[in-house]
Automatic annotation (TrEMBL):
Compositional bias ranges of the Basic residues kind: 1-38
Name the UniProt record assigns to this protein: YALI0F30011p
Residue ranges, annotated region (Disordered): 1-43, 70-99
Domain of life: Eukaryota
Species of provenance: Yarrowia lipolytica (strain CLIB 122 / E 150) (Yeast)
Length: 99
């Protein structure tokens, strides 16, 4: 005869996903293609020149702000370097003329 009752095993803890209501993902906004010829042409041009547009925009911002990665140095440093280059050219031109 057993002296004590059988021990029940402890349940292992399982990781479960929360069962609360989760909202479904919303669909991305649909892109409607233009119908007018002029609008279609505008879209093609924008696609074609998008890289150039972003590059010029970033360059413009960098010249104003001075700390974006595209330009090395800030606006003042770049202007100073350009001024030094112009002075060197003037000196070379002045030295070359008397000959």
């Amino acid at each position: 005869m057993p002296q004590a009752g059988l021990k029940k095993r402890e349940k292992t803890s399982k990781v479960k996903k929360p069962t609360g209501k989760i909202a479904p993902k919303r669909a991305a906004p649909r892109k409607i293609a233009p119908r007018r010829k002029s609008a279609q042409r505008d879209v093609e041009i924008a696609k074609k020149h998008q890289a150039a547009l972003t590059a010029t925009t970033e360059k413009l911002l960098a010249s104003r702000v001075g700390h974006l990665e595209i330009l090395k140095g800030n606006r003042r440093e770049i202007e100073k370097k350009n001024k030094e280059d112009e002075e060197k050219k003037k000196k070379k031109a002045a030295n070359a003329q008397p000959k």
